[in-house]
Write a structure and sequence with these properties.
- The protein is of the alpha+beta class.
- The protein has two domains: about 300 residues, set domain protein methyltransferase, domain 1 (Alpha-Beta Complex), CATH 3.90.1410.10; about 160 residues, Alpha-Beta Complex (set domain protein methyltransferase, domain 2).
Length: about 500
């Protein structure tokens, strides 16, 4: 993605160019913030009309950004130095560089062990004064809970706050942290941005995958939240007082907000055992500086007055430190962090089955389904390596949908437990439908599994295409395993001469 930003000649002040995408803005500063994390009393206001300068492109990275960032780091110190100056106690980590796939982009930073570590060691402990939460941003826990349980997500509120803070430039206490987020650009371990920032042509890499629809749906959700930003700005007294002349939708175009949202999404931490207003936190030294590992159990944890990381394995000095971000499938890892974990034991697909509402027996079937812990529209999770178990879990529900004879339905109603095989012809029809469903899903991808694997063998493959191909390749393997499990069940039927029963009200699969 190339730099693209135009600034009208009537600009009052030059753009802040030292902070590249994704929190890029180019506006006059209307508020001066003392260098302290204690909001509210530390603010002094300067009445000034906001500049009409708007970044017209989605990427404001300028040529020679590596040198620019290096000079700025010399002036204000790197992220870790800034943290130590503001209360971070001695820790056992260091920031190191990892080259980007694009020479135009700065290297990404990552957290590595500064010395040999053992399992159980505290790698670092970030004081709450260096952690951004809604309680701090909005200045009121009740307001934070009200806003985030209605129209706006925590991510939208945090993104809005950082966008305002970026307008303050170096006068903002959070300047070094915001600069680090800009450097990372929402990139994951493969230095690839979230698909939320991909072009339409790049999203085509995900054709056939439900992840593509999920990306478009998330983008629409971000747009809806953008349209509600003025609400949070007006309702949150602290924001209204800090930035009284900067109405969000007038100050920030949608593309800038979207980039900020994605940047926050890539680094937000979900803390446990804290109030709702503190559960989503931005923790310097946290993701995306920490690498993700699906078999890791180390997580950032809220302790008294701080957020700390206790490692779950030994590290040699210089090794990248990994954490667990929860049981997320690869589709969410890609959308949230820009990478795919091929060893992710939490990877999964979804199969949605629904009882036919036109079935005269629909209400009775719905009752039986509920009695067995299922819904009239039931979502089945297909986990990697457990495809046979997933198919077996679907069978009783699908059999229920195939029951059409009144006497058979009465028997089902009077019995307890899941629906067992009723007849050979019905079982064949049900398994045929399931096999056809998996075949149709596989046919929705423009490439075969063999073609995907050939692409991945190319070391020069475009990084975005590589991560997208990794995702669809893993999805196809799960679908193929489900199809094979279904075919095996068909082959186990005692009589293959039996024709499938007609099913006027067969369950719906999607």
């Amino acid at each position: 993605m190339e730099a693209s930003c135009s600034f009208p000649t009537k600009c009052v002040s030059p753009p802040i160019r030292s902070l590249p995408h994704p929190l890029s803005t180019a506006y006059t500063v209307s508020i001066s913030l003392h260098k302290t994390p204690n909001f509210g009393s530390s603010l002094r206001f300067v009445r000034r009309r906001s500049s009409s300068c708007l970044a017209s492109g989605s990427d404001t990275l300028i040529a020679g950004s590596r040198e620019v960032v290096s000079r700025k780091e010399e002036e204000v110190g790197d992220l870790k130095s800034w943290m130590h100056k503001n209360g971070l106690p001695p820790c056992k980590v260091v920031l190191k560089d990892k080259p980007s796939h694009d020479d135009k982009l700065s290297p990404i930073h990552f957290v590595a062990a500064s010395e040999d570590l053992q399992a159980g060691d505290v790698a670092f402990s970030v004081p709450n004064s260096l952690v951004v939460t809604l309680e701090r941003v909005l200045g009121n826990e009740s307001i934070a809970e009200l806003l985030t349980t209605n129209k706006l997500s925590e991510l939208a509120c945090l993104a809005l706050y950082l966008m305002y803070e970026k307008k303050e430039g170096k006068t903002s206490f959070w300047y070094p942290y915001i600069r680090e987020l800009d450097r990372q650009r929402g990139r994951g371990q493969l230095a690839v941005e979230s698909p939320l920032l991909w072009s339409e042509a790049e999203l085509a890499y995900l054709t056939g995958s439900p992840t593509k629809a999920a990306v478009l749906e998330r983008a629409e959700g971000i747009k809806r939240e953008y349209n509600e930003l003025d609400t949070v700005w007006f309702m949150a007294g602290s924001l209204f007082q800090q930035y009284p002349y900067d109405i969000p939708t007038e100050a920030f175009p949608f593309e800038i907000f979207k980039q900020a949202f994605v940047a926050v999404q890539s680094c937000v931490v979900h803390l446990q055992k804290v109030s709702l207003a503190r559960r989503f936190a931005l923790v310097p030294l946290g993701p995306p500086l920490l690498a993700y590992c699906s078999n890791c159990k180390a997580m950032l944890t809220a302790v008294d007055g701080a957020v700390e990381l206790v490692v779950d394995r030994p590290y040699k000095a210089g090794e990248s430190i990994v954490v667990w971000c929860g049981p997320q499938p690869n589709s969410k890892l890609l959308i949230n962090y820009g990478f795919v974990d091929e060893d992710n034991s939490y990877d999964r697909l979804v199969v949605e089955a629904a009882l036919n509402t036109e079935d005269p027996q629909y209400q009775n079937k719905r009752m039986v389904a509920q009695r067995n812990g299922k819904l009239s529209i039931q979502v089945f999770q297909v986990y990697k390596g457990r495809e046979k178990e997933a198919v077996a879990d679907m069978l009783p529900y699908l059999r229920l949908g195939y029951v059409s004879d009144t006497s058979e339905m009465e028997s089902v109603i009077s019995s307890q437990g899941p629906i067992c095989l009723v007849s050979a012809c019905m079982e064949r029809a049900m398994l045929d439908q399931l096999a056809d469903y998996f075949k149709i899903r596989l046919a929705g991808y423009p490439t075969t599994l063999a073609e995907d694997e050939a692409l991945l063998a190319d070391s020069n493959l475009n990084p975005k295409k590589r991560v997208a191909t990794q995702l669809v390749c893993l999805e196809k393997k799960m679908l193929n395993a489900c199809l094979q499990a279904t075919v095996d069940l068909i082959n186990q039927l005692p009589d293959h001469t039996v024709s499938p029963c007609p099913a006027p009200y067969a369950p719906l699969l999607k």
